[in-house]
Amino acid sequence: MFKHCTFVAVLKVYKMEKAKSKGWLKKILIAGGILLVAGAAIAWYLFNLKFDDTKTVKADYTVNAAAFLNEFKPDDSTANVKYKDKIIVVNGRVSETEAAADASINIKITDTLTDNYIIFSFQDQSLNEAKKIKAGDSVSIKGSFSDGVYSDILEVMTVNFKRCTLDK
b/e string for 80-90 if b means 16 or more Cβ within 10 A? Predict the structure, then answer.
């Protein structure tokens, strides 16, 4: 009888331990589910984030294209930090326009002395006004600064703007 009681006691302890471990597992699964739903909600928010129309946003800086490109010569990382995601109005003469395959238009302003250039990407609501721009036109373009990259191979600085519009 003593052996039987010992066996029953051990079995009860084993069941209690197993129940405790199931409780922790259940809590971990619930916490993981909550984190998964929260992560999905944050991702959905970020993917559906809409920007203000660049035309209605006040510019942080107004610059001349050649002077702006010269800011990137000594140290492009300093200029990248200074202008990152800022709205900037750039004045200059268009050197080239190109219609991209993704229903956008890119306008290029090139510094003729250094061959450094700025690319402005026009999309959606600004396409019609960008289509009217021709090489040689003097323009004032407002856009969100994206980045400036120096190519060691080509020895050329490229500065990119997104969400651009003509500034009047």
Answer: beebeeebbeb
Q: How many domains in the chain?
A: 2
Neighbours of 120 (CB within 10 A): 28
> Is 137 in the same domain as 154?
yes
Q: Name the strand (E) or helix (H) holding 138.
A: strand 138-151
Same domain, 161 and 136: yes
77-111 pLDDT per residue, tens = 888 889 998 999 999 999 999 887 667 889 999 98
Q: What are the distances in angstroms from CA 52 to CA 28, 86, 144?
A: 41, 13, 11
pTM of the model: 0.68
pLDDT tens for 104-131 read 889 999 988 888 999 998 877 777 788 8
Which of 28, 166, 27 is CA-nearest to residue 97? 166
